[in-house]
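User: Quick sanity check before I run a bigger batch. Here is a single chain. Can you write out its predicted 3D structure?
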Amino acid sequence: MELNNLAFLSEPSEETGVVGAIAYSHPGERFHGSLIQDFDLLILIVHNTEQAISKVEHYRYGDLRYQMIYASRFDLQMTAVTGGHYNLMQCLIDGEIIWEADNQISDLRQELSSFGNELREQKLFYEFTRFLRMYVEAKRHIQQGHVVDAYYDALETLGSWARIVLIEQGIYPDHTVWTHIQQLDRALWKLYQELTVSSETLEQRVELVLLACEFSVMSKMGDCSELLLRVIRSRKEPWSVNELVNHPQLRFVRNDLPLVLRKLVFRSIVKESAGWPSLEGEGREIRYWIEA
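Assistant: Done. Predicted structure follows.
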């Protein structure tokens, strides 16, 4: 069946805000469940908006079962940074463009697939914030005696470390991260093996990983946080944490941004000032700045 014969792929009116449709089918993976949830076809409908869209529909056309996912440019850019919906990215990059308005889908595909400096910097900062959060969680769990939980956190921490290594090499980290690391960073691959298959106790393995993280990735805090540091340097007035978590360039890390910010202060990379009157209560608001 020709894809353009399906009624749902006809170009909608301009009022809908839809700028294109992409179809993706991979028969060899149909029943694996992870690709398109056992559907014959995935249809991605792209909206030209900076607002998140959460809409999924399932249809049947004769013997064809297909899934339609509606996504905004914001959704796709967020997915590219966080890696949270790999199937969506796979559809965008490898799917067949059925129609598009003013080459907007082709331009977006080129922007994301080229892994240019802007996306690379966002991805690097996101992975570092995730690394830091899981590292802190692993330390907390090991101190409380929750060794199995600490092991899970340590494994996630290593995963973010591995993605940081790939990003620094200009490689977009997909779902085959450790296959790449096995060839690119033998020391990190050995550490991964020490955590997963070593004969040491679980607690000893976790503590080894945490020690390695402290001396390796934590030393890259300034480089990995350059996006945040540039935002802080962009004006003379100190920033409140609320201003930073709501900044458009930092919205993809807003949940973990306060943690990173405090670590940057601890490392004296960012300065704090508590001389600002609070809008609520009698305290003085802390704001953040960087020495010129």
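The first strand starts at residue 18 and ends at 24.

User: Great, the batch can go ahead then.
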